[in-house]
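So, can you check this one?
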Amino acid sequence: MLSITLMLTATHAQTLPFDKIDAFKKDCWSQYLKKITEDPQRQKEMAESAIPYKDSVMKFALYQIGDEPEGGYPLYIALHGGGGTAPEVNDSQWEHMKIYYKSSVKCGIYVATRGVTNTWNLHCVANSYPLYDRLIENCIAFKHVNPNRVYVLGYSAGGDGVYQIASRMSDRFAAANMSAGHPNGISVNNLANLPFLIQLGANDGAYNRNKQAVEYTQRLDAMANLHPGLFPHRLHLHADRSHGFHDNIPDIVPQTIIVDYNGWLAEKERLPRESIDPNAIRWLDRYTRNPIPQHVFWDLSNIADSRVADGKEDAKTYAQFYWLEYSGEKWEESGTKVIEALYNKMHNSVTLRHPANTMRILLNRDMLDLAKPIHLIIDDSFQRDIAVTPNETTIRSTLETRGDPAFMFEAEINIRKTNDTYDVAPTVPTVEKN
């Protein structure tokens, strides 16, 4: 049994009375928007439709469709096919993706990104993830995108990218559509709160894409059965289709899918079949992100690289996933692989299973009552009531980290494991004296 000590170490964080929190957050968001929209580098990125990072540049084509709805535009990030081929072929695929799903968007920001390389994984090399982060941040600030309605979708090599991006950046998206791609071994663990649609032609046997899609769906099925209400997903296995099928027709034109995909994989009975509307945009539009889900699984082996900061690599090493943050350098040094975390409003509690050696729990009043002690449970072997205090530093730092108003957290609990001991400490604000 682990021995766990409570360590209260004061930090230089300015305390914030509860009746001042909302006004302070509103002011922080206004200041952040002003800073971002007046930043010459960010302005250049949007004007030139290109974002640099290290030795990579992500080019993109952006289309604003319809009048801005209440709450902001939805954002659709669409990934083209191609992959390990000549640049001009990938360029032509990018041109095609500029229109492929666009006609199905009735209102929103449609962005077709150009893969940053000409390799098979052109959408999901390490440099890609910070660029998607930066693109989303920019679209929120400049194009009034609703951060809870950001979607990713792609076809073929773009589908390869969706598998990887959706897993590594699940907390950025409201839903994802993967068409005609290959998972390439990516875990399903991080998809607990991300609606995920997989679309494949039943006859698309290249690289075993069809069988891989069914096997990936079966892994999601298993997790959903273990954790009811989590891992929302669906497979559209298009009957009698190969690498080409219809997932982008603006009008509702039903297509035939194989319902019994388990039987299909076992080469048994392939009926019944069902007629469905396979339009990816309409499926995505059903969903809105919950940025603070109650139950989170975080596979640290699927962490994306650090974010872009003014075109350079951010000097701060971090990884944040919903309301958790891992502060180490590499997941192999974290002391775990998959963190499970839950909060319970009724009990005003947070439960951690298999926590990382160094991590933070980020909290706000939509999650728990911060005026009361938080009941912390770690691996069912330790329980302690911890008082937390809303403070300016946590609010500012979490906003700067993600550029997302839904990820402005008000208080935190820091956890550090040394040998067989956990040090558990809230940020204890100090009151500045005049």
About this structure: The chain is about 25% helix and 30% strand. The two ends are 47 Å apart (CA to CA). Confidence is low (pLDDT under 50) at residues 1-12, 429-434.
